[in-house]
Design a protein that fits this description.
Layout (H helix, E strand, L loop, with lengths): L7 H28 L6 H12 L4 E2 H8 L3 H13 L3 E6 L2 E9 L1 H22 L4 H21 L1
Antiparallel strand pairs: 1-3, 2-3
Helix pairs in contact: 2-3, 2-5, 3-4
Length: about 150
């Protein structure tokens, strides 16, 4: 069987995907270190952020979809954070069993504290890279996300 060859674009995309995979692991480890003293992990911080930055309260399935994660994993994190007093579940007028997830005051404080740690970290990491280069990379990743969404 003949081996299929990448186009130049396909080869560049493969290199980008591999770099994103490596970066994801490094970002998760760095995030874990950054928020460890707050009693958070990168996973908890990510879910707190999805809740905090959503314009409306959402059920777990919608939060998971917005983060590109599976519902079961997000449900486990939400349950743990509920037990720790960071989030609460509220009745959903549109669905009897799919409760809406809301930050508690403690959850809001934890997210604010994490954001305060993240800003100087992000500023230092971005130093020496032009904002235009970062914006171009962000546009490329968003375009790839949209293509993957439409392929599903």
């Amino acid at each position: 069987m003949a081996t299929k060859r990448h186009t130049p674009g396909g080869e560049a995309l493969t290199d980008l995907v591999l770099a994103v995979f490596r970066l994801n692991g490094r970002l998760l480890a760095a995030g874990d270190r950054l928020v460890a003293d707050l009693g958070l992990t990168s996973a908890r911080w990510q879910v707190l952020g999805a809740i905090a930055l959503s314009p409306t309260l959402q059920p777990v399935a919608w939060l998971a979809r917005s983060m590109g994660l599976n519902r079961q994993g997000v449900q486990r994190i939400v349950n743990e954070m509920r037990d720790d007093g960071l989030v609460e579940l509220r009745p959903n007028p549109n669905h009897r069993r799919a409760h809406l997830v809301a930050l508690t005051r403690r959850g809001q404080d934890a997210f604010s504290a994490a954001t305060n740690l993240q800003a100087p970290w992000a500023n230092a990491l971005a130093k020496g890279i032009s904002p235009n280069e970062i914006a171009a990379a962000s546009r490329t990743l968003k375009a790839l996300n949209e293509r993957l969404d439409s392929a599903d």
